[in-house]
Write a structure and sequence with these properties.
15 strands, single chain, six-stranded parallel beta sheet, alpha/beta, 2 domains, binds nicotinamide-adenine-dinucleotide, Rossmann fold, Dihydrodipicolinate Reductase, domain 2
Length: 342
């Protein structure tokens, strides 16, 4: 591949471990649209990558993925996979396998790893992963996909650069605090950092109620001169899927709706009927970039590999913050009191 001046760009050799839904299946039967829902399609449609190797413990899954993406090398053995001289590896196995596999990937000095969320099953495991990453010369990014959406980046910039005065945030999710709630907790960490304290409210009465990862509601307290609180509420995912964030500011309101597909921005304006009052006027109705985020995330892996970027948009450290918050919510539930995150 050549750039505008005719200089050839190096092609990154990529491999994927775990060939299930997020790696491959969700796009195996999809149309000609360029919407990449999977790592395999995102790499395949970007000429900067050679999708060179796949690994999965399940033979038939491996073969189906290999045929779907015409990948030359596929194996059930991790050692054979890592002997393929890969520049970038996407780790798309269930979370239980991450620590063991990451150790092996980093021992083989793969320069960039794009790891599916969540990072580790709990805080202890996430901290073990962080140690392994810090001891290596590799760069590991976690796929919290909404961070790659330019509209989400714009919201963060707006809050920080225009110093918008956040008053209250209300979030809705379902299907597990770590599994799905972590997408919203990650956005809160991305926008505002780690809250000081949290309080557990209740647990959603869905089919995950007695599992390791129930859907819990909680309040987050951000302290300091610009103190505000966040209400995270859990809904029954069997009714419908939902991820939403509603940010109330002195200057107006920003809503991230429909899992990030829609973004509404309102500003406080003089009410058209009652001029002594202010009401909300819609100033922007935007389409979030959910269709492009995985392609952008994989694109960032190329930039990290080529040293065009030094730090990932979604670093391992921020996943530690997510686990700190979740552990604090659990502690708050056990002790029936507010728990510290910091
Ligand atoms: N970023 C997102 O928005 C998003 C969306 C969906 C899933 N995910 C995450 O991706 C991960 C995988 O989810 P999924 O739905 O694709 O799972 P999945 O069960 O569909 O696929 C996982 C695959 O990994 C394989 N596997 C298991 N252990 C392995 C090992 N030791 N070596 C090689 N292969 C192994 C399995 O055989 C399976 O094919 C989960 O952590 C999930 O939370 C993230």
């Amino acid at each position: 591949m050549a750039d505008l001046l005719g200089n050839k760009k190096p092609i990154a050799r990529v491999g994927i471990i775990g060939c299930g839904n997020i790696a491959s299946i969700l796009d195996e039967k999809s149309s000609a649209s360029d919407f990449a829902k999977t790592h395999a399609k995102a790499y395949r449609q970007d000429l900067r990558f050679d999708l060179a190797a796949l690994c999965d413990l399940n033979d038939s899954r491996l073969l189906t993925a290999q045929q779907a993406w015409s990948v030359k090398f596929a194996t059930t053995r991790i050692e054979e996979f890592l002997a393929q001289n890969l520049d970038i590896v996407s780790l798309c196995t269930p979370v239980e396998m991450q620590l063991e596999l990451l150790k092996k990937i980093l021992e083989h000095k793969v320069k960039v790893v794009f790891c599916e969320k969540p990072l580790g099953r709990n805080l202890v495991e996430a901290e073990q992963i962080l140690k392994v990453v810090e001891r290596s010369a590799s760069i590991v990014a976690v796929n919290y996909i909404r961070r790659y959406d330019s509209e989400i980046v714009a919201i963060k910039k707006e809050i920080l650069e225009k110093c918008l005065d956040v008053q209250k945030v209300v979030c809705h999710y379902g299907k597990g605090l770590l599994n799905n709630g972590s997408h919203l907790i990650d956005l809160l960490v991305y926008f505002f950092g780690l809250p000081s304290r949290v309080r557990y409210i209740d647990t959603c009465k869905d089919d995950r109620e007695d599992s390791d990862d129930p859907s819990m509601s909680a309040v987050f307290y951000y302290e300091g001169p610009a103190a505000f609180s966040v209400y995270l509420t859990a809904q029954d995912h069997r009714n419908f899927s939902n991820l939403e964030m509603d940010i109330f500011m002195r200057e107006g309101r920003t809503q991230i709706l429909d899992s990030g597909r829609e973004i509404l921005k309102f500003r406080a304006v003089t009410d058209r009927d009652y001029p002594d009052y202010k009401s909300l006027g819609l100033v922007a109705h935007l389409q979030g970039g959910l269709k492009h985020v995985l392609a952008l995330g994989c694109g960032e892996m190329y930039e990290l590999w080529r040293d065009q970027k030094v730090a990932p948009t979604s670093p391992v450290q921020d996943s530690i913050a997510i686990h700190r918050i979740i552990e604090a919510i659990k502690k708050s539930k056990e002790r029936n009191e507010v728990a510290r995150c910091q």
